[in-house]
């Protein structure tokens, strides 16, 4: 799973996902992209599941870029634990994905294959998505 090598603070406050994205809103690497329409947290497991779905469908052809990285720790206390005793331990890492963020990009494959790969990947993610195609001039 993806997780940061080093953090300034081991435990942090929960990230907000309101509003629209100002960064990562244009295709930078590939010809096709998967863009978030709604905002949500995306966990390390969901990113990995989407990556595997895309990679398997394109049969390791072309090139895939992952533009998001889970950098925020989410803590949780164990089941049936009494109140108090401090903050729980780190359970997982998430990335806050705002509406308009491009999460994945692809290149080196046909449009039909890219569309189907992104469709399979979007089923693994907790938000609504849209497929982008770079218009060549």
Model description:
The mean pLDDT is 94. This protein starts with 31 loop residues before the first strand and ends with a strand. The chain has 137 residues and is an alpha+beta fold. It is elongated. 19% of the residues lie in helices and 28% in strands. The longest helix has 14 residues, at 44-57. The protein has a domain at 32-74 and 86-133: Ribosomal protein L16/L10 (Aldehyde Oxidoreductase, domain 3, Alpha-Beta Complex), CATH 3.90.1170.10. α1 (44-57) packs antiparallel against α2. Binds 23S rRNA and is also seen to make contacts with the A and possibly P site tRNAs. GO terms for molecular function: rRNA binding; structural constituent of ribosome; tRNA binding. Belongs to the universal ribosomal protein uL16 family.
What is the topology?
Elements: E1 32-36, E2 40-43, H1 44-57, E3 63-66, E4 72-76, E5 89-97, E6 102-107, H2 111-122, E7 129-133
Antiparallel strand pairs: 1-6, 1-7, 2-5, 3-6, 4-5
Protein name: Large ribosomal subunit protein uL16
GO biological process, one term: translation
Function: Binds 23S rRNA and is also seen to make contacts with the A and possibly P site tRNAs.
Properties at a glance:
137 residues, alpha+beta, 4-stranded antiparallel sheet, Aldehyde Oxidoreductase, domain 3, 2 helices, 28% strand
What's the gist of this structure?
Helices cover 19% and strands 28% of the residues. The protein has 137 residues and is of the alpha+beta class. The strands form 2 sheets. The chain has a 4-stranded antiparallel β-sheet, covered by helices on one side. A 3-stranded antiparallel β-sheet has the order 2-5-4.
């Amino acid at each position: 799973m993806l997780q940061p090598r080093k953090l300034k603070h081991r435990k942090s406050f929960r990230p907000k996902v309101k509003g629209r994205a100002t960064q990562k809103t244009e295709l930078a690497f590939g010809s096709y992209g998967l863009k978030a329409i709604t905002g949500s947290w995306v966990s390390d497991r969901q990113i990995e599941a989407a990556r595997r779905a895309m990679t398997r469908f394109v049969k390791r052809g072309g090139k895939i870029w992952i533009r998001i990285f889970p950098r925020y720790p989410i803590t949780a206390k164990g089941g049936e634990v009494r109140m108090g005793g401090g903050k729980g331990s780190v359970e997982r890492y998430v990335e806050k994905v705002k509406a308009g963020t491009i999460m994945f990009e692809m290149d080196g494959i046909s449009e039909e294959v890219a569309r189907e790969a992104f469709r399979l990947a979007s089923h693994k993610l907790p938000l609504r998505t849209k497929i982008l195609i770079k218009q060549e001039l």
